[in-house]
Amino acid sequence: MEVTRERAWDTLTRYTKSQALLRHALAVEAGVRFYARELGEDEELWAAVALLHDFDYELHPSLDEHPQDGAPILREEGWPEEVVEAVLSHAEHLGLPRDTPLKRALFACDELAGFVHACGLVRPDGIETLEPRSVKKKLKQPSFAAGVHRDEVYAGAELLGLELDDHIRNVVTALRPIAGELGLRTAAA
Ligand SMILES: [Fe+2]
Ligand SMILES: [Fe+2]
Question: Which of 12, 41, 127, 153 could form a disulfide with 36 if both were Cys (CB 3.0 to 4.6 A apart)?
Answer without folding.
Answer: 41
